[in-house]
Amino acid sequence: MPAIFNAQLSEYGSFYQVSNVFLTEVKYILPNAKYVDLPNEVALTLKNELNQGKLITIKKPYVDDRKSPDIPLEHFEITQPKTLDQKKSQLKSKVNQRISAYTALLSALDIYDFFVITGKLQALGFNILDDFNKENIYLDIINTGNENIISDLERFLELKDKFDRILKKHKGITDYFREIDECDTEDELDETVKLWSSWLI
Known about the structure:
- The chain is α+β, with helices and mostly antiparallel strands.
- It folds into 2 domains: 5-82, no CATH class; 105-201.
- The protein is built from 7 helices and 5 strands; from the N terminus they run E-E-E-H-E-H-E-H-H-H-H-H.
- The protein has helices at residues 40-51, 60-64, 84-103, 108-123, 134-143, 147-182, 186-196; strands spanning 5-12, 15-23, 34-38, 55-59, 76-79.
- Strand 1 and strand 2 form a beta hairpin.
- Helix 3 runs antiparallel to helix 6 (147-182).
- The mean pLDDT is 86.
C-alpha cells in the first residue's frame, strides 16, 4: 500500500531533522524539499510530537541507506530542544508546518488552471500578467462581452489573490527566520517570538 504521509527533512551534518509531516500530495506543491515516506502510525506519532514542540531527528543512513521502505519509529530521536540552536531550529520547524498549511491551500488544479488561463488570454492578446496596465487589460476583457473569457478573468483574479496572500506570508516568514538567526540569547529569542506571535497566527 503506498504511503499517504511524508516527513519533510532538513539536513544537519550527520542527521536530518523532521521539519513537518503531511499528506504525500503536498510534496508535489513544495518539490524542492527532501522527503521520506512514513508508515501511517509513525507519521501520526511524529506529527503529534512536533505539535508539542519536540525536536525530531534521524541519522542519515536510516533514510539514505535503508533496507526497507518503512522507517520504524525507533529510528527517530525525539527530544525536548535544549540549546539555543536547537530552539531556533524547532521554532523554524513549527513555522514550516504553517507554511505547508498555507501552501496546501493551492491544489494542483489551481496551479494548472492558472497556467492554462494565462496562456489562453496571452494567446488572445491580453497580457494578463502586466501589473502596470492591469486595470485597462481587465476592462478590455470585460468589454469583449465574451462570457467564457470573462469567466477566465474571474478565475484568474481568484487564483492571483490566493497566490498573493501566500507569497506575502512566505515573505514575512523569511524575515522572521532572519530575526531568529540573529538572536544571540534565549531572552532575545523569546522577545522575537513574542513580537511575531500575532502575525504568525
